[in-house]
Amino acid sequence: MLSRIYFFGKFFLAGSISGISISIPLLIPLFILGYYFFLTGILKNQKILSSFFSGWLFGIGFFASSMNWIVNPFLVYEKHFHLAPIVFLIFPLLMGLFFTIPSILITVFLSRYSKNEDHFFTTCFVISLSLFIPEFLRSNIFGGLPFNLAGHIWVFDARLIKIAAYVGVFGLSFLTFYWISLISFSFTKKKFLLTLFSIFSLPFFLILVSEFGSKNISSDQKVLLKVIQPNISQKEKWRKNYFEKHIDNLLELSGHNNAEKEIIVVWPEVALTVYLNEQKELLEYIKKKLGKKTTLITGGLRRSFTGEGFDIYNTLYVIQKDRVVYYDKRRLVPFGEFIPLRSFVSFWKLTPGKTDFSVGGMANYLTLDYKEKKINFEPSICYEAIFQTSNENKVMLIINITNDAWFGNLYGPTQHLNASIFRSVEKGIPLIRSANSGISVITDSNGKVLKKIGLNKRNFIQSEINLGTNSTFFIKNKERILIIFLILIFSLSLICDKIIKKRKSLKKM
Q: Residue 250 in contact with residue 232, Cβ under 8 Å?
């Protein structure tokens, strides 16, 4: 009995180690160590049922430690407190099931081929593909949850994620799993020189890609941007008696633009907690305070009346001297902006109000005027920025507005930012991110953070940046690049195995 508890307990511990270290660059070795214990444990499994529970416990540990911030939205208002422990238990139990896929696949494969030394690199490919499949699935099904991908561990250095401009974040994730598999499998086989080589191989390769890859992804056109982080508490944000105070806070940080320079000012998600499309006097007041040369991009609400009532949208507005355009959020947060199966679980709704938000149906790009030129940009609200998108019209930058005050002070805001940065790298365009309480950033076209405001700080950042071209190799070949990349890695693995086998045959002669 104790041996079983130890056997399965170590999988939960391994998952917890990998999960808690994924957002902390200094702990990357622990991320690898957790997967090493997982993979070496799977090697000893001979039964499918044992593999199922091994993978499940690893997954439970991984999600319980890496995404425990998921309970924070249930701690904002007292009426939701009782739901927090339920969410804390249910979420990792369900998400952990994704890790049962690789554990079963690896067990089945290794039971047939693990004894064959001639298939070393091919085995590593199969192991990494088995780890990659559930990560890809959870990022795309049931609405998708592309948080804490293996590729995200490299985001602390822009040089290490440049490869995403060629193969996307999923390509980098697969490479990371292949790297971990090489380290783990070679160490298990007591190939210590190969283990040492493997440890340094991927970081060195990623830096090479950054140094010798294409660098001409920025255009000559520049824009002056100012990002505002008002740091308004979630409990005060929706109170009507605080509305004027919040407006004054935003305007003070934005400043009055008396200069001749045109500037784009960005406020966070629902910075204005009113139906802004119905507030002409407020719009004129804001325009007057900011000055004629200022373009304001802000979050607000929008109401559209229908024959049976009205629809409410979470909206990004572009406010200029002579026009207002908007984008309605297309990916809504379950239980925050809408309630699945509302008639059964309406009490789960986290945000104020009883009405669900409606899904926007507009294209995911907007145009603004700047110095007599048109600038196309990709608007995104909250966690929309973590999803890969395609644009018919080439966009020159991403503007993301969000309210990460929902996610507390631990890893949630950092993970949200990390995932968003990859959209900048994949498209080769800057990311402009205004978060209510942090983390707000301005990046360049390579995803390098130029300026930043940390968590729970009231401040602004300003920078003149080059726009991007949205013409990376990944964008040009997006639909097929991942498949081609996997085929390439598989082919290289086969070639390496054949070379090793041939060398062994020559030595025996």
A: no
Q: Phi and psi for 77 in degrees, rounded to 5?
A: -110, 140
Predicted local confidence at residue 338, as pLDDT? 55
Helices (H) and strands (E) in the chain, counts: 15, 13
Q: Which residue among the candidates 226, 329, 349, 427 is catalytic per the annotation?
A: 329
Q: Which domain holds residue 492?
A: 2-214+479-508
Q: Work out whether the CA dihedral 199, 202, 208, 211 comes out positive or negative.
A: negative
Three-class secondary structure of residue 265 per DSSP: strand
pLDDT of residue 49: 86
CA distances to 337, 383, 397 from 348, in Å: 11, 19, 36
Put residue 438 in one of left, alpha, beta given phi > 0 → left and psi -120 to 50 → alpha.
left
Looking at residue 115, its pLDDT comes to 55
Residue 353 pLDDT? 53
- The pLDDT, as a whole number, for residue 333 is 74
Tell whether 75 and 180 lie within a shared domain: yes
Query: Does one domain contain both 238 and 146?
Result: no
**Which one of the listed residues 337, 349, 382, 384 is annotated catalytic?**
382
Cβ distance 192 to 232 under 8 Å? no
> Quick one: 305 and 187 in the same domain?
no
C-alpha closest to that of 58 among 100, 105, 109: 100
CB 431 within 8 A of CB 443: yes
User: Which H or E run contains 226?
Assistant: strand 218-229
Cα–Cα distance for residue pair 51/494, rounded to 1 Å:
27
Number of structural domains in the chain: 2
Active site residue 124: no
Here the CATH number for the domain that contains residue 364 is 3.60.110.10
Q: 35 and 7: one domain?
A: yes
113 and 230 inside one domain: no
Query: Per DSSP, which regions of 329-482 are E strands?
Result: 366-370, 373-381, 397-402, 431-435, 440-443, 449-453, 459-468
What is the SS3 assignment for 451-491? EEECCCCCEEEEEEEEEECCCCHHHHCHHHHHHHHHHHHHH
269 is catalytic: yes
Judgement on whether residues 416 and 498 belong to the same structural domain of the protein:
no
Task: For 54-89, write each residue's pLDDT tens digit.
Answer: 999 999 999 999 988 887 767 666 666 777 777 778
How far lies 215's CA from each of 166, 219, 424, 446, in Å? 12, 11, 14, 9
Residue in 269, 337, 378, 384 annotated catalytic: 269
Residues 371 and 455 reside in one and the same domain = yes
496 is catalytic: no
- 4-18, 140-154, 314-328, 408-422: least confidently modelled range: 4-18
- What is residue 394's DSSP assignment? P
